[in-house]
Amino acid sequence: MENIMTTLKELKKLFFSLKIRRKKSERNNNTTTIHLHGSNGFYIGLKLILWRKRRRVFSFISAISSCLLLLLFSSVYFPPPTANNLFLSRHSSVRHVTLSLSFFFLIHVVFVILLAELRQVVKGREALEYNFEAMFQVPASGGNLGRDLWSWSQSTFYYGCSNASKKFQTADIKTLPDRYLLIATSGGLNQQRTGIIDAVVAAYMLNATLVIPRLDQQSYWKDTSCFAEIFDVNWFISYLSRDVEIIKELPPKGGKAWIPRTIRVPRKCDPTCYETRVLPVLNRTQAVELTKFDYRLSNRLDTELQKLRCRVNYHALRFTDPILKMGKLLVERMKMKAKHFIALHLRFEPDMLAFSGCYYGGGDKERAELGAIRKRWKTLHASNPEKVRRNGKCPLTPEEVGLMLRALGFGSDVHVYVASGDVYGGEESLAPLKGLFPNFHSKQTIATKEELAQFSSFSGRMAALDYIVCDETDVFVANNNGNMARMLAGRRRYFGHKPAIRPNAKKLYKLFLDRNNMTWEEFSSRVRTYQIGFMGEPNEMKPGKGEFHENPDSCLCQAKGIETFEEKNRKDAVKMSDEYQSIEDPDWIDVDYLYKIEEFMSD
């Protein structure tokens, strides 16, 4: 009996599952998830589920049949005990047997019909069963979406505009003598880039001369590169000469080396904060060094200071000639392979997964490996992987990135350049992505070891090469919202709104979980809907929304008299974009994780 009750519960679950799936299909204006339309859809769907669970159903039927046979034989050989005389006993027994046989016959007919239906499913529905198993079949083609995948039709109506206005005071008027600001940056290349940009603005606010920032050589990758080995220092000084006075070294004081006073300002420190915390010290000592300088300046500043940020980021910070030459060579080789290509910042390295507290189904081995890495950050609390992923704070797996791109219209013939460190899981993790996009490239596959030799020992210089390719690509795809992703998204907006895709991970998470219960057409349609506001289109983000480096709205101008967006589409894009929650990302080339987290906690 216990087995029968268990089987009955299983059948109840099956019917409930079918009911839920039917409601979901109706809600999404679809019929069943197997492309069956009309009044018989429910009936055929039921038969398919019964076929999928046929072993349990057969067990159930066998159990019920056995019970009925047992009941029949008990009725025949053990007559009712209440019969007191022979006539009544015989009469009652005959009637009891007749009723039992009738009941058994009816039940047997029902089960025979059900068995016949199941056999029909076995014999006549193999093709339908195959469709059920294979309904989520990823096509090789991206399909015809009726739009250009590689550019936005409205992008030509926007342009970057960061020139200073007439009211902006120039360096020769504003800079005071014997007042020097030094900066010690923190993290990897793109995190340090934010520090360099904000250092120029801080020097301008403090009326000080800026000494070329000192790059972080103590972070996780121990890159010993100095500013002049990554950026063109002479160009940097020359381009900003009208904005801020910049020198390469702090001059000696009284013929002796000058040791500046070190200060660490809070994160997101606004101009008033600098006036109260830094300026008094600078006035007394004449030289101040701001340490671990990343995101130490407010995201919101007045327009003139924001435009200065843009001049530094998009014009003054130029890579050295060897880096530019190699980066352009990589771009040329990609363009020789295909007219258009995607650059993907995959961001699926072990440190990122460990930092985020995500789990990807690797069992105890994965938990042990990522848990050991996570111990680097003593201030991190125990994570809830399910909650983290549900909130959209986990990178997509390589396979999920590939499925998203295919759903967005990119076919298997598209060439993909991957900017990434060592992917967790190695080739096993990459195999599904490579299966979807076999034209798979990286620095190491399109350049020789000899060509990369002068860069390969320096994470910052290798990151600079990826930065150039991701900037020059037709479509940039980021798998998180870390420093590199934000920097490139803002740059691509500034230089013509080139497509920059970032996953709406919060919505896609649920979709990926349920993908085997829907057709590819339904899946791809939902992906395209969820990605509205996450594609790098014009007017996608509200002014002032997000990090300024990602959305440099003060530096974006629109051609006059051009209606660039239908109001409804703009509102939809902004609404979807507002749902996006960025990850505080220890980017593989961007962040000294321990500094970033522990300093954040201490501030």
UniProtKB/TrEMBL annotation:
Matches recorded under Pfam families: O-FucT
Translocase among keywords: no
GO biological process, one term: fucose metabolic process
Signal peptide feature range: none
Keyword annotations from UniProtKB, A to Z: Carbohydrate metabolism, Fucose metabolism, Glycosyltransferase, Membrane, Transferase, Transmembrane, Transmembrane helix
GO molecular function, one term: glycosyltransferase activity
Transmembrane segments: 57-77, 97-116
Protein family: Belongs to the glycosyltransferase GT106 family.
PANTHER family: O-FUCOSYLTRANSFERASE 16, PROTEIN ROOT HAIR SPECIFIC 17
Protein name: O-fucosyltransferase family protein
Organism ancestry: Eukaryota, Viridiplantae, Streptophyta, Embryophyta, Tracheophyta
